[in-house]
Amino acid sequence: MLLLLLAAPLVLFIIYRLTNWTRHYLAARQFDLPIIPIPIAFDDVWWLPLRPLFSWVQHLPLGLGSWYVYTEMGWPIVDENRTSLRLGENFVLCSPNGNTIVSCYMPTINQIFMDHKNWGMPPAQSQLFAVYGQNVSSTHGEEWKRHRKITAGAFTEGAMEGVWEESKRRVRGTEFGSGALSLDGVRNTFNVVAMHVLANVAFGQDTELETVGQGHRDSLMGCLGTILQNILLTLVFSSVPGPEWMLPRTLRRLKAAVAEFRLYMEEFILRDMQSGKAGSVGKKKSLLSAMVQANEAEKHGMVKAGGRPSFLTESELYGNLFVFNLAGYETTASTFTFALSYLALHPEVQAWILEELDAHYDPASPYAETYPKLVRCLAVMYETLRLAGPAPLLVRQPVDTPQEVEVLSRHGPKTVVVPPETLIGGHFYGGHLSPKWGSDALEFNPKRFIDTAASGGETLAVPDDRMYMPWIFGPRVCPGKKFSQVEFVGIVAQLLMDHRIEVDCRAGESESDARGRLRGVLAEKYFNVSAYVKHPHAAGVRLVRRSKSG
């Protein structure tokens, strides 16, 4: 009897999920798209800690465990374009939680990302990074406009000039050594470079980021690293109430890191406001300063929008600072981990970039004169993000009422009606690795983004008929897009002017074998805010300083 009582909740839970799963499957059939039934979805919170225990499922015979790959948030990074090649540019993931139409079909993508009034982010995605408060990434409609108005003014051309100079300065001040750097070492090195650029340009702080500040228990990089490395656990468990001694060690560290980073942000804002009141002469304007000043102007004007103040609350300022840190730190390090690896595998691309640097790059020349000419350097970033972008799948859903959208069914293009409870996910890897990019779609070739005029001048261009959206597009394009581009080009230009990048060969290993090993490591990726390689210590690169003669 006791056993039955204990088993009853589990049985009811299973019946409930099977009932919902059946209902959603019947609803999915109306779309006339291939359906992949999955018993568990990546938004099942209870599945998060249990998933690693069931990795054996994917090795079951007859494809019985093929659903397992779709049960993690970043599954497209693992799957790449395999499912879209097998099933087409639109298919449905059907789980007990609901249906998600997965798409890399451009008419579908254009509609859901351009029409932000009728298509919005579901709470599971929009609140993903609202750890400290609502922000420009988590809000919708009029609320989003309020956040966008305050934050957009921070990303001026004056700020980009600061990004340019600081990026070059940090590369010149970094000692890369002559030994091998594992891919983990590459990521750690550029974590530090990216955080220094961010701290200086975004927050006006030129401090030792790895030192524990006065009144703190962890360094700025330490607490931010803890949060980002455990971001999903942070989102679910960082606000768990109860005495610290009752929590597991990992959760105690997370709660402490979240509190520490909030304290750092409070200090940044307070220091900036005090500096502004003191009327600091010659003090360069940081992104934080611009955002705080815009917010104070709104606050003093008490401009109303829909009956609400148009300025940001304290928690909203923290929320926006956090997402700026997230984008400026985590995704930058990821991009350079892959970019340096691809460049090591392609010395001919390095030579191609060096031609551009010899023609146009002078470390002393100003941003406005030099940056626009370095299109080959920027093409390397575009190609790296095509192959290893940070965002695997971003979803949208009808805001209030069912919406019509064009999809590519088994029988050709058709219009389907999508109810509000159904999601549509932009499958970036499916589009970025599509055969539409050519027979070399899976290869690193930044020249695909270069248009050469009859006069010989080069411009960067994305072909109109291909899906490319590492920064999204439309009204909600990433506000830090230009920041990331200027930072990347500045770092790559200075780095390749001073160094050549080689594949690390182990003792007794041929260069061909070393290149194959690096390719194999790059092929095994996973998602944690951005793209990571599973075995970063299994391969590496060398940064060899160039001689004066080149």
From TrEMBL:
Heme binds at residue 478. The keyword Heme applies. Keywords: Heme, Iron, Metal-binding. One of its GO terms (molecular function) is heme binding. SUPFAM superfamilies: Cytochrome P450. Its cofactor is heme. It comes from the Eukaryota. InterPro entries: Cyt_P450, Cyt_P450_E_grp-I, Cyt_P450_sf, Cytochrome_P450_monoxygenase. Belongs to the cytochrome P450 family. This is Secologanin synthase.
